[in-house]
Amino acid sequence: MHVHELNPKKTVITMIIFVVVIIAGLLTIRSPRLKYALTPEQTVLLTASDNGGISPEKLELLLTGSTEKVEVIDIRNHYEFARGHIPGARNISAVELLENDNIKWLRILQEEGFTVVIYGKDQLQANGPWMVFRQIGFSNVTVLLGGYQYYLAYKDNKTQKYAPCKADFNYDEVAKASVADGEDNNQPAKKTTIVRRKKKGGAVAGGC
Amino acid sequence: MNKNYLVLAILMILLAVGLLLVPERQNYQQIEPEKLMWDITQTSRFVTVDQVAQMIIEGDPTLELIDIRPVADFETFSLTNAINIPLDSLMKPDYQDYLGIEDMNVVFYGNSDINADQAWVIAKRMGYNSIYVMQGGLNCWIRKIIQPVEPDESASQEEFDLYQFRKGACAFFTGTKVEAPDAGKTGIKVVKRKKGTAVAGGC
């Protein structure tokens, strides 16, 4: 017979402490302010399917004619914003985007069915924030193709079709055309490379 | 037997069953959205085509170029020693081995920098470090390295140095015959210059 079985209260106390610790643990689990709504795999699909947002033509249409609810966010800094921006845009610089107030505001917009268009000075600047918003569940957020630069060019009617992810050249031909009379050394040495890289860190071990 | 023990035991079993329901842990450590957004606002993730050319020419062993274009594009043209990970297969386990190798600087590139940046965001979210994006992508590579444009006469010495470097690099990558002393000299000259002022001129 165990000693503490002489005192039944001891087991009760142990049990209570046990339960209290578990409950305290459950209550204090840190629940992150923002959670990912998309897995990395889904994000990959997002980049593959939705090649980024909305053209200036379409934005113009949304802002003027249609009844669709649109909110435009300029993610450049305040100085750049002050020098010129898309009419009706609201300035929230990239570093402030995830602040509590802004997240709250975005949640409201999402509930009310707004389309949120974000843009930076070029599409690259807005690409990251757009992906973050999509990944944390703001499926109503879209990005302005080409950013502010392209928007201005569009306004000046100097535009050609914006196709950021297309090849502007036939690389192979261009590279070969530049070859006067040398051999072509653009062939990827991929098989050998892959073998070499795969080795990881193991080789480091055992020097003298 | 004490009744309390029985209750305690049942509680333990219940908790053990609860453990089974705990969601499976992923085998990579994701960074939080706030951290991801912060990293995105930093421009230190960009490298210029000149820096990449420099590293290839010097045979930098820490450089790991990753071509995120589709396989067919990669097979017709790619940069020296690049590895092909098409953007849509970035998450496949086979390819994950290429990321996160110690002491390797991974540089993503595509036709432009948008897709490469998307690959960067996903890799960053999964906690990989030492990853970069080649600014301007291959379009910029062709414009600057393969078809360098001679600067105006009024341009600064730096721009001429850069042009000389690009001409040398073009010769290196295409095999064009250039006057040997020219290419050789500029190669060394630019090594000194490049490090700090690489930011000059974007595509």
Low-confidence segments of chain A, given as residue ranges, are 180-208
Rg from Cα of chain B: 24 Å
Whole-number tally of structural domains of chain A: 2
Derived structural class of chain B: alpha/beta
Can you identify the CATH class of the largest domain in chain A? Alpha Beta
Q: Tell me the quaternary state.
A: heterodimer
Structural class of chain A: alpha/beta
Give the distance, in angstroms, between the N- and C-terminal Cα atoms of chain B: 80 Å
* Structure annotation, total helices of chain A: 9
The counted number of beta strands of chain B is 5
Strand order of the largest sheet of chain A: 2-1-3-4
Taken in chain order, the helices and strands of chain A follow as HHHEHEHEHEHHH
Number of helices of chain B: 9
What does this structure look like?
By secondary structure, chain A is of the alpha/beta class. Helices cover about 45% and strands about 5% of the residues of chain A. In chain A, strands 2-1-3-4 form a four-stranded parallel sheet, with helices on both faces. In chain A, β3 (about 115-120), α6 (about 125-135) and β4 form a beta-alpha-beta unit. The N and C termini of chain A lie far apart (about 60 Å). Chain B is α/β, with parallel strands linked by helices and about 200 residues long. Chain B has two domains: about 35-140, Rhodanese-like domain (Oxidized Rhodanese, domain 1); about 150-190, no CATH class. Chain B is about 50% helix and about 10% strand. Chain B is built from nine helices and five strands, in the order ααβαβαβαβαβααα. Chain B has helices at about 5-20, 35-40, 50-60, 70-75, 95, 115-125, 135-145, 155-175, 180-195, and strands at about 45, 65, 85, 105-110, 130-135. In chain B, strands 1-5-4-2-3 form a five-stranded parallel sheet. In chain B, α3 (about 50-60) packs across α8 and α8 crosses α9 (about 180-195). The radius of gyration of chain B is 24 Å and the shape is elongated.
